[in-house]
């Protein structure tokens, strides 16, 4: 992985959809506003954009931590901009601060993400090992 410059910023711009509102499945729809779990997804996506330009061939990233402090609502149809700012690199661990703002200029959330940069073959091998364990667990008579 190549070094990430201090203060490197990436943005993710999205439009809130009805699908992104609070609906807990078993418990049903709760609030007709942008859900915290979607904000977490978008924080992780913006954090990934921080590492992509700096990965070497054969490297991949995997999320390991997302902190979300959801401070305000956004309605379906509103544009939200998530800004990811690189804050630190500790070996292969990459940290970024997150901030989400609506088109009205209201901050609706902030937090951080952490990702690990590893050889993609190692990431793939870990997933394959998990698939193998799960398949063995599901076999009849086991």
UniProtKB/TrEMBL annotation:
Coiled-coil blocks: none
Pfam families on file: FlK
Active-site residues (renumbered): 36, 44, 70
Stretch forming the signal peptide: none
Gene3D superfamilies according to UniProt: Hotdog Thioesterase (3.10.129.10)
Residue ranges of every copy of the Fluoroacetyl-CoA-specific thioesterase-like domain listed in the record: 16-120
InterPro entries per the UniProt record, alphabetical: FlK, FlK-like_dom, HotDog_dom_sf
Positions of transmembrane segments: none
The name this protein goes by in its record: Thioesterase
Phylogenetic lineage: Bacteria, Thermotogati, Deinococcota, Deinococci, Deinococcales
């Amino acid at each position: 992985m190549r070094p990430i410059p201090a203060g490197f910023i990436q943005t993710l711009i999205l439009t809130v959809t009805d699908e992104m509102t609070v609906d807990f499945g078993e418990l049903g729809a709760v609030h007709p506003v942008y859900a915290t779990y979607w904000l977490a997804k978008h924080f992780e996506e913006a954090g990934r954009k921080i590492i992509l330009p700096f990965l070497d061939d054969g490297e991949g990233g995997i999320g390991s931590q997302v902190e979300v402090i959801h401070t305000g609502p956004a309605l379906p149809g509103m544009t939200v901009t998530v800004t990811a700012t690189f804050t630190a690199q500790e070996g292969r661990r990459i940290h970024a601060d997150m901030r989400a703002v609506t088109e009205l200029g209201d901050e609706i959330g902030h937090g951080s993400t952490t990702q690990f940069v590893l050889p993609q073959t190692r990431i793939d091998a870990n997933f394959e090992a998990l698939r193998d364990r799960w398949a063995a667990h599901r076999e009849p008579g086991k």
